[in-house]
Amino acid sequence: MRSLNDKYLMNNGQQIPCLGFGTYLARNGIEAYNATLEALKTGYRHIDTAAIYKNEESVGKAVKDSKINREEIFVTTKLWNADQGYLSTIDAFKASMKRLNLEYLDLYLIHWPIAKGRDNDWYVNVSETWKAMEELCSKGFIRSIGLSNFNIHHIEHIYRVCEIAPVINQIELHPGYNQKDLVEYCQDKQIIVESWSPLAQSRIINDPYFDTLVEKYSKSAAQICLRWHLQRNLLPLPKSVNPERIAQNADIFDFELGTEDMLYISNYPYAKWSGFDPDKGMF
Ligand code: A2P
Known about the structure:
With 283 residues, this protein is α/β, with parallel strands linked by helices.
């Protein structure tokens, strides 16, 4: 990937900008609004939100106020666990679109495979959810549909019931939590892997482990980590509400990590993951 405007081709023939702007923990109101507007001014054309982030209104308003042609911006939101099921998915989607105030959505994801209390029949729940999403997609309200936090066996279930294959799986992924098997599985199926918390919520980037690379490439540890994602054909979604860091995280297209350096980053010692387990219906 050579520029912020480069795109990955999805398995449904549509394209998705190779770097996304994450908005998790950006508070609804001035914080999420300013951050999204700043990201769009910086040149990001891919914004990731979710119903549970409770900032869809501000994100949608920033998209509108940016005055950038809607077709140029790729917007993702996600269905929250409590809304899984056929009718509830349709209602939740309508509510998200009302908050976003958009005419269509680029990508809708099932946020987690297992909703609270549905550990034993999650697959029934997810099947109904997927059916509703396929219908919304076929009717043109959504351009692409996908998954988030799905492990291999959850995705296998989608393949058993789907008519439209998922284009994306958005998972927690950062140096120290490589998710190698799941990434291989998805990439083999032409499912693009998006990385949430690509910087491990900033836990790893002050580690002296990256010092030699920082010096060698004259880039920050955050930029080096984001570049590592791109060179693994992953789609990172860094979150920031700080204009300098928003710009810094997009300035990752003028250098290339060598093979040994890629390996060095991949071998970063196990870094604590968030602890949210896709196999437990905890929300
Ligand atoms: P802030 O929003 O104040 O910039 P992740 O995307 O892995 O979840 O990480 C998000 C966290 O990392 C946020 O706390 C964000 O804080 C911080 N962050 C984002 N970009 C950078 C950067 N380039 N350097 C340092 N911290 C960053």
